[in-house]
Design goal:
The complex is a heterodimer of chains A (about 550) and B (about 325). With about 550 residues, chain A is an alpha+beta fold. Chain A is built from 19 helices and 11 strands. Chain A folds into 3 domains: about 30-125, 2-Layer Sandwich (Phosphorylase Kinase, domain 1); about 145-350, Transferase(Phosphotransferase), domain 1 (Orthogonal Bundle); about 355-410 and about 435-460, no CATH class. Chain A has a 6-stranded mixed beta sheet with strand order 1-5-6-4-3-2, covered by helices on one side. In chain A, α5 runs antiparallel to α7, α7 (about 235-250) packs antiparallel against α10 (about 310-320) and α13 packs across α14 (about 400-410). Chain A is globular. Mean pLDDT of chain B is about 85; it is low at about 295-300. In chain B, α8 packs antiparallel against α9 and α8 packs across α11 (about 210-225). Chain B is mainly alpha-helical. Chain B is about 60% helix and about 0% strand. Chain B has one domain (about 10-320). Classes of the chains: A alpha+beta (about 550), B mainly alpha (about 325). At the A-B interface, α1, α2, α3 and β5 of A face α1, α3, α4, α7 and α12 of B. Chain B: InterPro entries: Cyclin-like_sf (IPR036915), Cyclin/Ssn8 (IPR043198). Chain B: One of its GO terms (biological process) is regulation of transcription by RNA polymerase II. Chain B: This is Cyclin-L2.
Chain lengths: ~550, ~325
């Protein structure tokens, strides 16, 4: 083996040495990092896949997000969905794709711990916002150059994915992360898979599918009509429909196709794009899901609904929201669309309006800090993020609406969880004052299952004004003790946040359980989790 | 995208492997070789294509760069590598299938590493199902071990489960070289045979060289075997391989056959292995006891001398061969 070493020493500038200089870092072969390499700053969210924590790398000082991979003691070992996501992310390298920086392992504490297996975390860069949460913020208004800038980045990322034979299959605003430098990154590859068909070519739309996949993918509001009609031989065009939905969402500030069931989703799609005919959706009648439906003839209404954003925007939206998946525009062509070549021109990521952004950032950071609160001391209440407070606020008001809203389209992080879009305006009054604590903290021994979400404040150490940052930044969850961890795990009613919406089965059962998950009873929550687990397993089957 | 490259072993890892524990080098090599052969055999019985089996071989080699050989039963580690590779591929295999196949392969009923000169009729008469049919509790314990080692492997590899195999590259390179004016199958088959054999090499060629170098070396060897005329110029440079690495790989690949025969033949590294099927940890432990080695050996000094000696042997072989 000393041959190798001698080669390392005498590097002539050869193609090989170039290759060596550009190959994967050798450090990638030394096993996973330890969780102790990261200073955990607090929880960001919780989903079916696992919790998400914010943390700081002790090596580089960079802020990262730690996504915990839940092991259900499955009989098939390490979850295949997580493996696929990890493998894909490790192969990808693009500025508009969320990077998997590391895998971190947390070994269970010695004997006292019942959990025998170590816990794995995926380490990605920390991104300040997700698009869903950003759009939801009443103080953020996207300018046209800003929308164009995000769209360009989204399309660049998608072009790269599709060129590399990858279907994302969960395109939606909540999976698009944005940092304060104006960079947008596509995240959450839990449903992604290798695409067997031909990659998109300029001017050829999505092309023809080559083989069947499961049609139980994509969050409903972003699901294209061909999937709703159970086309199995689909193409990269399914992701482009999602781009169209996100585009429209950025234009109007709320999801444009918020269907309440799969049937209703089709209804409102036809309402917007016109009913399917042999011209605008050739072959739609032969799709398995088309037998039962008889849509009444309707004209397309895109220009009516989006006309105020200009004819070029309407033109791009029309291309993205084409019913015919074969001629729906692909990412390569969309990047060349006149929309990006007409004034006002797209902004550069670095020159996005800093005033609004920084304002937004401060608010976010504040929210993060509160989200990162440690669990309350023993006997006190469980520390909950303030977002729960606001959620509970409108949960009480909206009830069912909230549950269904989040069941389908929860934000990536709980702080960003969006409200049910009211029928008329996009900023409900009760939402506006979700900033600083609008109410005095309740007493310490506030009952745990009080319907009011602000109960968490009881366990929080008092702090003045905007200060109190220290108590959070130095907080390191004690991973070694079982009790506090279980407590945090119990708070299952926040599972809607991280990636629940990726579930393919958004049936009524899921919706119903989502609504019920607002229940404050821990027992119900536990049952809830079991059911989630079952559903998780079901879902894994679909992903094959 | 790093589709085309593999993470390689660092010199430290290779060195550390050579000084792991008390295991003498020839024992390590025998274990490695036996486990890789077992993985190949299991791949065939599981009806997996070589593109998946070979990946399992590479992952197994990577794993043993990081974790000591004696930590788990060798066949279990092979099974875990096979299982997780298949799981990640388009043709997953159930734990039950993997269990059945490995139970058969390590049982005396299989022909794996058993002398073939045993009359086939006798072997068939002995074909006694209970010998390789596991009870439910045996299956459960195998299953538990499988998953535990699977997690170990993922952890040790830091989830770098992607393996770039040189086989497709070799075909592409051959096309670029116009198959060196030989019948396509003849030379391509020979080149792929070299690549498949290289998987078994205890030199861990797949962990020390990138796929392009392996492909070029295999083509070079195949061309020499079938008497094809290679370009006069330094054609390997076109494929980003330099002469030194090519030389090393060519010798490495050529030496596998002779080495494999030797280790299975007269010069047994382990007494009583011959005809006993898959190498087990117990056999290795007995061998260690027989040699009077108990715990971590103090042969750290010999390692380098030994490496030098082996290197010299290889060089001599190279000169002799060319």
């Amino acid at each position: 083996m000393s041959i190798l070493e001698s080669q390392e020493g005498g590097n002539a500038p050869s193609p090989r040495s170039f290759a060596i200089a550009h190959q994967r870092p050798k450090s990638s072969f030394v096993g996973c990092s330890r969780i102790t390499d990261y200073e955990v700053l607090g929880k960001l969210g919780e989903g079916t896949f696992g919790e998400v924590h914010r943390a700081r790398s002790k090596k580089t000082g960079a802020l990262v997000a730690l996504k915990k991979i839940i092991m259900h003691n499955e009989k098939d070992g390490f979850p295949i969905t997580a493996l696929r996501e990890i493998k894909l992310l490790k192969l990808l390298s693009h500025k508009n794709i969320l990077r998997l920086e590391d895998m971190a392992v947390e070994h269970p504490a010695r004997s006292t711990d019942k959990r025998k297996r170590p816990i794995m975390y995926m380490v990605t860069p920390y991104m300040d916002h997700d698009l869903s949460g950003l759009l939801d913020n009443p103080s953020v208004h996207f300018t046209v150059p800003q929308i164009k800038c995000y769209m360009l980045q989204l399309l660049e990322g998608l072009k790269y994915l599709h060129a590399n034979h990858i279907l994302h299959r969960d395109m939606k605003a909540a999976n698009l992360l944005i940092n304060n430098k104006g960079i947008l990154q596509i995240a959450d590859f839990g449903l992604a898979r290798h695409y067997d068909g031909e990659v998109p070519k300029p001017g050829k739309g999505g092309g023809e599918g080559r083989r069947d996949y499961t049609s139980l993918v994509v969050t409903r509001w972003y699901r294209p009509p061909e999937l709703l009609l159970h086309l199995k031989r689909y193409t990269t065009a399914i992701d482009m429909w999602g781009v169209g939905c996100v585009f429209g969402e950025m234009l109007v500030g709320k999801p444009i196709l918020a269907g309440e069931s799969d049937g209703h989703q089709l209804e409102i799609i036809f309402e917007l794009c016109g009913s399917p005919t042999d011209e605008n959706m050739p072959g739609w009648r032969s799709l398995p899901g088309a037998e039962a439906i008889h849509p009444r003839p309707r004209p397309e209404t895109i220009s009516q609904r989006f006309g105020s954003h200009g004819p070029v925007a309407v033109s791009l939206l029309r291309e993205l929201l084409k019913l015919d998946w074969r001629s729906r525009i692909n990412a390569i062509d969309a990047l060349q669309h006149p929309y990006f070549r007409t004034a006002p021109y797209p902004a550069q990521p670095g020159e996005l309006p800093s005033f609004e952004e920084s304002h937004e950032l401060d608010r976010r950071k504040f929210h993060d800090r509160r989200a990162a609160l440690p669990p309350a001391p023993k006997g006190g209440t469980v520390g909950r993020g303030p977002h729960d407070g606001s959620n509970a606020g409108f949960g009480g008001g909206g009830g069912d609406g909230f549950g269904s809203r989040n069941g389908v389209n929860g934000g990536r992080y709980p702080r960003n969880s969006r409200d049910p879009p009211p029928a008329d305006g996009r900023v409900p009054a009760w939402h506006r004052d979700r900033g600083l604590p609008p109410r005095p903290p309740p007493p310490i021994d506030y009952p745990l299952d009080h319907p009011d979400g602000y109960r968490d404040r009881g366990g929080r150490p008092p702090r003045g004004g905007g200060g109190g940052r220290q108590d959070v930044d130095t907080y390191i969850p004690s991973y070694d003790r079982d009790a506090p961890r279980r407590r945090r795990d119990d708070r299952d009613d926040r599972r809607h946040d991280w990636d629940r919406p990726r579930r393919p089965d958004f049936d009524e059962r899921a919706r119903a359980s989502r609504t019920r998950s607002r229940s404050r009873s821990p027992i119900v929550r536990d049952r809830e989790r079991d059911r989630d687990r079952d559903r998780d397993r079901d879902r894994d089957m679909y992903r094959r | 995208m790093s589709h085309m490259t593999n993470p390689l072993a660092t010199p430290e890892q290779l060195f550390q492997r050579r000084s792991f524990g008390a295991l003498p080098l020839e024992l390590q090599d025998a274990i490695f070789f036996a486990a890789q052969c077992l993985t190949q055999a299991a791949g065939i019985l599981l009806q997996l294509p070589q593109s998946i089996t070979a990946q399992a071989n590479v992952l197994l080699a990577r794993y043993w760069l990081v974790e000591p050989l004696m930590a788990h039963e060798f066949s279990d580690v092979s099974a875990a590598a096979m299982y997780l590779t298949a799981k990640l591929s388009a043709s997953p295999r159930s734990p039950r299938d993997v269990c059945n196949v490995y139970a058969y392969l390590v049982s005396p009923a299989s022909t794996f590493f058993h002398p073939l000169h045993q009359p086939l009729a006798a072997a068939a008469a002995e074909n006694n199902p209970p010998k390789y049919c596991l009870s439910e509790s045996q299956y459960q314990s195998f299953h538990a071990r499988l998953l535990a080692i699977e997690a170990r492997v993922f952890y040790a590899l830091s989830f770098n489960t992607h393996v770039a195999l040189p086989h497709p590259l070799a075909v592409t390179y051959l096309q670029a070289l116009d198959f060196l004016n030989m019948p396509k199958e003849t030379i391509a088959k020979r080149a792929l045979a070299y690549l498949n054999a290289a998987v078994l090499s205890p030199q861990m060629l797949y962990c020390t060289s990138q796929p392009n170098a392996l492909a070029v070396a295999a083509i070079y060897n195949a061309a020499r075997d079938v008497g094809a005329k290679m370009p006069e110029c330094e054609w390997w440079e076109v494929f980003d391989v330099d002469r030194e690495e090519l030389g090393f790989l060519v010798v490495g690949m050529r030496s596998i056959e002779g080495w494999g025969r030797k280790i299975r033949g007269e010069e047994e590294p382990i007494k009583g292995w011959k005809g006993k099927g898959m190498l087990t940890r117990r056999m290795v432990q007995e061998e260690l006891r027989r040699r009077g080695i108990e715990e971590v050996g103090e042969e750290g000094d010999d390692v380098e001398a030994d490496m030098a000696r082996r290197l010299d042997e290889r060089m001599a072989e190279l000169e002799g061969g060319s």
